[in-house]
Amino acid sequence: MPHIKLEEGVPGILGPMLFSPHTAGPMNLLANALMQSDEGLSRGERELIGTYVSSLNDCYFCQTIHGAIASAYLEDDDWSFVKNVKSNYAETTLSEKMKSLLSIAGSVQRGGKNVTTEQIETARKNGADDRDIHDTVLIAAAFCMFNRYVDGLATTAPTDPDIYRNRAKKVIANGYSATISNGTY
Amino acid sequence: MPHIKLEEGVPGILGPMLFSPHTAGPMNLLANALMQSDEGLSRGERELIGTYVSSLNDCYFCQTIHGAIASAYLEDDDWSFVKNVKSNYAETTLSEKMKSLLSIAGSVQRGGKNVTTEQIETARKNGADDRDIHDTVLIAAAFCMFNRYVDGLATTAPTDPDIYRNRAKKVIANGYSATISNGTY
Q1: pTM more than 0.90
Q2: How close A178 comes to chain B (CA, Å)?
Q3: What letters, b where the CB count within 10 A reaches 16 and e where it falls short, cover B25-47?
Q4: Please, are residues B101 and B132 in contact by the beta-carbon 8 Å criterion?
Q5: I want to staple B10 with a disulfide (CB 3.0 to 4.6 A). Which of A102, A160, B15, B95 is the partner?
Q6: CA distance A68 to chain B (A)
Q7: Which of B178, B181, B173 has its CA nearest to residue B69?
Q8: Interface ipTM > 0.85
């Protein structure tokens, strides 16, 4: 049961966002600016970083919805690729650049000061530029917020994968900013 | 030295925000909506929660600037009260309500799932309502983002307290949203 009174049947982060629309607005704008950008990292890569950090934070709702969005972008129909990235990205077919960025994201998840100069150098050697590194750090940091918002209020989450598949389609079509304001959760 | 190329002499979070204005915009709107609200918790109490979480995350820039803002609101001229809140809030003259909310904020800092039903019940017994609990969780979660953004990119921070005092006055007068766009950092 959630720690505060939230509308029933509204899953995950959408419950608190409906409770507090004046803070949900900027949070969705941030998600949109950060995740629905085509500059540098692809949308699928951005969602992979968010999914990985959400799995490190053990946030079921976030890792499942963002995993579903990543899978949709990456044509990973049975979710097996995203599952492998979460459990052991080093052994996947991801680019060396993405592997080094996920390593940085993992450090950010434990705390910003864990990011080392060596990790940054490795990422650059693998083709990452300032924008890629910036966006990786901010995506990882932002998911440390979203995950804590979802679990710190003990929100509920559906288990039916089709609910996440359907919501993923809506996010991909309309962006994050639109998903609360028009009630299409 | 920061992990990416940031404008010199721009301290803390303001460097990455200048680097990436399209994500800074929503982040400042969120800070404004969350910290410059008079509904329920006072602005000084909101800043205390942000300062406390920043100290748990060992983020020098954030705990110093938000500590300076909290001190300005709470007429804590020599910063001794905020310092005591950071080191041992239970022994301060803070209200029992604020102490129980800081306890919740501390749990969120370690991860959302650490918030217990007992902590929520204690907060309610001490006068906290759904809005107070929601805002405490979201402030704590948001500072877990801001702190990681600042330290994950290894930004630099000035040590002169007057720089923080002066910036605190500007934030109190103009809000967070205005401090980047008009260049008054």
Answers
A1: yes
A2: 15
A3: bbbbbbbbbbbbbeebbebbbbb
A4: yes
A5: B15
A6: 22
A7: B173
A8: yes
Structure tokens that stand for B77 in this block: 């001229």
Q: Domain tally for chain A?
A: 1
CATH of residue B153's domain is 1.20.1290.10
Q: Is residue B181 part of a domain?
A: no
Q: CB of A35 within 8 Å of any CB in chain B? A: no
pLDDT confidence bin for B180, thresholds 50/70/90: low
A64-120 per-position pLDDT tens digit: 999 999 999 999 999 999 999 999 999 999 999 999 999 999 999 999 999 999 999
Report yes or no: A163 at the B interface, CB cutoff 8 Å.
Answer: no
Classify residue A61: in a domain, yes or no: yes
Of B37, B57, B144, the CB nearest to A145: B144
Q: Is the pLDDT of residue A177 over 90?
A: no
User: And the tokens for A24?
Assistant: 């949900």
